[in-house]
Amino acid sequence: MENRLVNLFREKRENLLNVYFTAGFPELESTGVVLKTLEAAGADIVEIGMPYSDPLADGPTIQQSNTVALRNGMSIKKLFSQLAEVKQQVNLPIILMGYLNPVLQFGIEKFCQEAARVGVDGLILPDMPLHEYEEEYEPLFRKYNLSVIFLVTPQTSEERIRKIDALTNSFIYLVSSASTTGNKVGGDAKQLQYFQRIQQLNLKNPKLIGFGISDRSSFQLACKYAEGAIIGSAFIKVIQQKESLEQNIRDFIQEVKAQEPVSA
Amino acid sequence: MKYSVDERGYYGNYGGAYIPEMLYPNVEELRQKYLEIIYEPSFQEELQSLLRDYVGRPTPLYYAQRLSEKYNAKIYLKREDLAHTGAHKINNTVGQILLAKRLGKTRIIAETGAGQHGVATATVCALAGLECVVYMGKIDTERQKPNVARMQLLGATVVPVTSGSQTLKDATNEAIRDWISNPEDTHYIIGSVVGPHPYPDMVARFQAVISEEIKQQLQEKEGRSNPDYVVACVGGGSNAAGAFYHYLNEPEVKLVAVEAAGHGVDTGFSAATSVLGTLGVIHGSKTLLMQTEDGQIVEPHSISAGLDYPGIGPLHAHLWETGRAKFYSITDDESMQSVVLLSRLEGIIPAIESAHALSALNKMELKPTDVVVLNLSGRGDKDLATIINYLEDIEKPHGE
Q1: According to its UniProt record, which reaction does this protein catalyse (chain B) (predicted)?
Q2: Separation between Cα atoms, residue B285 and residue B138, nearest integer Å
Q3: What residue in B sits closest to A59 (Cα-Cα)?
Q4: What crossing angle do the helices spanning A30-41 and A76-86 adopt, rounded to 10°?
Q5: Which of A70, A154, B289, B357 is most deeply buried (CB count within 10 A of its CB)?
């Protein structure tokens, strides 16, 4: 069975742009529009957030987008129906990101089944314990050809990083610093040392750097040390404006992906 | 039946550590070290001396004569209300601050609802000379102003939380986010038997001093260390965990857990998790919690800020499922009647939380020979404004 995420990394291993947005934000029916516009604008991967009342690892921008999306009536069930509608028009790899509780309530097997049906390639469930994945869920995700992506932080031990590298088959999500989402990547010495340390581990999986990637310069910095990067909070700020949503998305992606170095 | 936590951090089907990777190294460090540190002789020596000379332990086990006459049973009150800072919360914070120092942490964070745990944390931080940041829902900072002032006087920074519903659940989220952002120098003192393993077990062990003392004191007073009933209120459940701890494997002792029904369990304004909750994950633990069909966490209601939590600790979920503890839910109105009752019968103004436990006496079928130990988890001074407002409201003639 084909997995678009796995395929992508086979073909391309640099300057990959993964863009996060919250499903049902800024409006309930925005999901499909944002998704299609991102693909057309040149994003390589999308990560769609399933909104949650208590997003522990997220900073204020993404929290707020979760609150708005829930108020708009967003749910996992609704997201699956939105993704089913646009399935034929979207070709880029889709990752769903969300906290474990809503997935458990939906039913984990039913969730995997539905995700596979609507064309989801990968999952990020940040509060799913690694050992439970190994002991309980791995065969299930495998059965539905869903690649599970795990986070690595500056505090993660090498032993654990190697274990994560062995457990996944698409990419490793490198959290840029000890922070929730939305704080800026500074590129200070400590951070660069961390990126280099990970580079030198020669992991089998590519890495995408996330948390604090917000613009062309932070994207380019991340791409020096990893195969690509993930932009979340900064993109949420772009789509907060309901007017000229599509144009704003195109402008933002073009600006981030431009090859020229940022002029001083 | 086994009621202690297993090596994976579960009580039966409940518990575990459902945390993002950013928290893993800290929680894992705690998991590996907490038992070793807590049972070091030098730690125990320091802890026991603080519990005695600073907290004021043992707290009395008081035979409540007039209350006993009213309910026609022998009722003892475990006087946690007489502990320093006015509640059982300090048993845990004294323990955790000593642990934090041994882990080399220099900064302490905590969440608080009513402010009792925040005050208990600010207190031990002052004692240990450590920086203290307390997260408190903005709505709670407004309705619990005296406790905000106490924490500030003790040198703590109180951060009003404006995310979500601006109450305890969100204060806990914000404290967790702080810990994510400050993984190296900071220890998070959780105030109840909730959160990822090892917190529920660690907090229960620090609170277990309550039942350890009850056993000894009851032996002296009744010639038996086991009562027929132990009664305690449950929000997250730390005072109940402490009062039950040494009785968990004594099946002749009936355990009674009392939750807040708020306006009533069917009104949509309730915090009775054992009635309204279903299995899910909250604040890093798999347990019973109040949630929508879609798995979004629901905001609870109780007049008592200490019971106003949408989950219960995994130990209590296990006690509920196995039937080891019997659960009652008590409304706001019932609890306020017990506040007045205990004040007038015994000259003790209880915390509204503890008054919920008292109200359960009305629902239990007691025999005259029954020995009941009720954990009076805190005193009511902090609740005076709520109590006065409530009494004024009901004393108003109709139509006003």
Answers
A1: (1S,2R)-1-C-(indol-3-yl)glycerol 3-phosphate + L-serine = D-glyceraldehyde 3-phosphate + L-tryptophan + H2O
A2: 25
A3: B177
A4: 50
A5: B357
CA of A53 vs chain B CAs: smallest distance (Å): 5
Task: Enter the pTM of the model.
Answer: 0.96
Q: Which two tokens stand for residue B87?
A: 């509640």
Catalytic (active-site) positions of B? 89, 111, 377
Q: Flag if B20 and A105 touch (Cβ within 8 Å).
A: no
Looking at every residue in chain B, the average pLDDT score rounds to 96
Q: How far is A127 from chain B (nearest CA, A)?
A: 4
Q: Quick check: A77 and B294 CB within 8 A?
A: yes
Chain B neighbors of A156, CB-CB under 8 A: 21, 24-25
Q: Which of B151, B177, B198 is the last residue of a domain?
A: B198
Distance between CA atoms of A260 and B247, rounded to whole angstroms? Answer: 70
Q: Give how many domains chain B has, as a whole number.
A: 2
Class of residue A193 by CB neighbours under 10 A (exposed 0-12, middle 13-18, buried 19+): exposed
Q: How many CB atoms lie within 10 A of CB B228?
A: 18
Q: Does B8 reside within a domain?
A: no
A3 domain-assigned: no
Nearest residue, CB atoms, A101 vs list B22, B180, B280: B280
Per-residue pLDDT tens digits for A205-228: 999 999 999 999 999 999 999 999
Q: Do B305 and B189 belong together in one domain?
A: no
In chain A, the number of structural domains is 1
| Tokens representing residue A145 in the block | 């050809």
Buried b (16+ CB within 10 A) or exposed e, A124-157: bbbbbbeebbeeebeeebeebbbbbbbbbbbbbe
Residues of B within 8 A of A128 (CB-CB) are 18
Assembly ipTM: 0.94
